[in-house]
Design goal:
Length: about 160
Amino acid sequence: MELTKNIFFNTDKLVENSKIKISYTGQFFQDSSQDVHIHYGFGYNWDNVKDIKMEKSELGFQTEIQLDSSESLNFCFYNENGVWDNNNGNNYIFPIEKQQNSLIVLDDEPVSLGNAKKLRRSYLWSKKIRLAIYKIITYLPKIVSGNYKKKSHSEV
């Protein structure tokens, strides 16, 4: 993600359907404005536009936003005097990445006993197959060449 002066996120990339924290240390923080709002929307058409009052702290003005499933997050800021910080008319625009579905773990979905048994059974079969292959690779050449000699109990 391209870095923008005075805008900070609590994450290195914006991912759809996640909650992020935005910190703003720009013009309004520097000139000691008291009330700053973020005006934001999603995509090229600014869908689902919302305004949120930001909390002032020693780190700047901060708020949390729930991201939509869209291609970008667009936003700008305004203070109590109606003055806007809209990145010189370009607005602040950041790409939103698609969620990696293969990495999602659902905590509320219990693992069924049937699935656990299948996993255990497949693990055991893979272990048995590996052992059989090891024995074939180790002992078959000895048997074929005649170098295999079974140890008697007296030799042990």
